[in-house]
Amino acid sequence: MSVKAFKLVSAVEREMLMGDKNHINIECIECCGRNLYIGTNDCFIYHFMLDEKISTSGKITFAATKQLHKYLGFKKPVSELKAASALTRLLVLCDNTITLVNTMNLEPVPTGARIKGAVTFTLNENPVSGDPFCVEVCIISVKRRTIQMFMVFEDRVQIVKEVVTPEQPCAVAVDGYYLCLALTTQYIILNYNTGISQDLFPYCSDEKRPIVKRIGRQEFLLAGPGGLGMFATVDGISQRAPVHWSENVIGAALCFPYVVALDEEFITVHSMLDQQQKQTLPFKEGHILQDFEGKVIVATNKGVYILVPLPLEKQIQDLLASHRVEEALVLAKGARRNIPKEKFQV
């Protein structure tokens, strides 16, 4: 039985991005407040302002206004974008190099500061330095079996640590000193400060794409064997039961109390409270699913969409209306911290 937990709303239409140029594809996205950045296969970055509009009937729509676009000067796709809003910088990965650009005019920083030799990168959302004017960046290096940690400032970068891994890493998420890594044959947790590592479970990166996602303090979500979404803490244990995904999940995101997953044909929504699948949305040709400050965004090669959550109170009322009292109670109790007190009492 399904719950209507999310609505899929278009945010950036194909024409706004590419006009009549069919060869342009969306490679990556980043969203920071109302700012939406899109990286394309022809080495451009597009900056849009997103405005949410609510009609009198309660229907939500998004209007995206194009601010500017910038060519980065390579013949390669823009493969990743991450915003460091405290620094007013966008970190752009293209052709194995991370360049710092200004978030407003998309111009590279005058000092030319960059990180070379990066296959992929992520930011530490639970930083250890305590410096508000710096972001901690973890890269999988082009050097074999090597992870590097950097401190990135407004106009310079500084390497902090280089760690050798037991096998070649292919995906990473960071929390404090802990790295959660997908290696060639398994997932591990590695403390880059002490060098102590812990095996989680086996996984074959040749057969499918690994997913490693930090979902909260000292906790990660991973694509496990047998189509399971597995939770793991930095201590290498799981405090929640896994969710059952399809075998070929491409991306996953968290929007409490739901885990959202994308495969080749559908977006599926599972509850973290009872592990049940609550909603399935047909979605063809999707290749990106990410959450940004609670906003869940999906994209095909040609368009960007936002998964808008329905108010929890409305979901609870719908469950009660269809006599699913147990599920309504589980949702109300589990989501208590996300519901205003007076509404929770009711």
How far is the N terminus from the C terminus?
A: 25 Å
Helix content: under 10%
Poorly predicted ranges? none
Structural class of the secondary structure composition?
A: mainly beta
Largest sheet: 4 strands, antiparallel
| Strands side by side in the biggest sheet | 1-28-27-26
Our Rg estimate from Cα atoms comes to 20 Å
Q: Beta-sheet strand percentage?
A: over 45%
DSSP helical segment count: 4
Mean pLDDT: 89
List the helices and strands and how they pair.
Blueprint: E1 6-12, H1 14-18, E2 26-32, E3 35-40, E4 44-54, E5 60-71, E6 78-84, E7 89-94, E8 97-102, E9 114-116, E10 118-123, E11 135-141, E12 146-152, E13 157-164, E14 171-175, E15 178-182, E16 186-191, E17 197-202, E18 212-216, E19 219-223, E20 228-233, E21 243-244, E22 251-255, E23 258-262, E24 266-271, E25 277-282, E26 288-292, E27 295-299, E28 304-309, H2 312-321, H3 325-334, H4 341-345
Antiparallel strand pairs: 1-28, 2-3, 3-4, 4-5, 6-7, 7-8, 8-9, 10-11, 11-12, 12-13, 14-15, 15-16, 16-17, 18-19, 19-20, 20-21, 22-23, 23-24, 24-25, 26-27, 27-28
Helix pairs in contact: 2-3
Provide the descriptors you would attach to this structure in a database record.
346 residues, mainly beta, 4 helices, globular
Provide a brief overview of the structure:
The chain is mainly beta and about 350 residues long.
